[in-house]
Task: structure prediction
Amino acid sequence: MSLIIFIIILSALIIVHELGHFLVARKFGIRVEEFGLGFPPRAKKLFTWKGTPFTLNWLPFGGFVKIFGENPEADTPSPPLGNYRGEGSVRAPADSFQSKNRGIQSAVLVAGVVGNFLFAWFLFSLGFVIGLPAPADLSLPIENARTVITTVLPASPASLAGLKSGDAIISLSRDGVYSAISPEEAASFIALSPTSLTFEVERNGQISTKTVTPEEGIIGDKPAIGISMDIIGIVQLPPHQAIWHGLKTTSELTILTGQAIGKFIFQALGGRADLSGVAGPVGIVGMVGDIRELGFSYLVTFTALISINLGIINLLPFPALDGGRLFFTGIEVVTRRSIPPRIFNTINAVGFAFLILLMVLITIQDVRNIL
Result:
């Protein structure tokens, strides 16, 4: 079930991204030769919209759009259905991507990322309508606020004992002595506990008891079990407020995510990046399984966060990503010359190969974490 939900989430995120490219391309009169749901081989043609065939393909992982002229070396221009435009001796049909000015090309390229941000905004807004988990320190009306475990370190005492992110702490005790369960007081109680602790937690409406023995070395030289906690409640808003706070939440999380990704890249360039916190497809499937147990609203939040991450990563000026294509477009604007197709395609192929290699390495790490 977790794998099926993951495929649905991934497909939705990719289709939203590609739909952004499609709508803006058609807005500016660029021909889109195919909008594929899933990846080839093709199963069947579904319908035609705005002159573009929508197809269903056998590999159910997202989708794609084939924009005419986006790859000038591979695409052979069709003869005359209108005027030809171009620079110098290079001419392209009027409905080709290459025939448009750099501003329009940039708009088409960035439209996919905008689609991801709009999708996150929609999901957060929907979440606020149906009831979304949120920290108590936000200036929002929160109901049923409780101390909740927000992070569990892999292979930590808490993880081995069966505690999970999203568990609400009902009680915390040691040898019959009970602690207050605010995050600060619970953390102090754990740090002063050299013996086993008893957690009573609620997960998905079910109450259970977990026994955890703190260890030193997780956080300095004090006993710890490898969790972080926060006061979490449910925010439920009327639609007009949900839309505004959905936009606000999306904007704030986009900034925070961008800062985190920027910091990671800076550390990677200095050889100090820690890949242990990076999850690939296998790791995300496991996360989906855990989040599914917490409820639909948590799954909505998770999908919105993934959408924001995908949007920001796609903006990075790296070959094979939308940001890489935007970077090349910027070079062409400055130099007022088109980059030769062979050079462009070679750089993109190398970038794509690097991304595949990186994904393989992260997947191997995910498998090792599971084992």
Notes: The first strand starts at residue 32 and ends at 49.
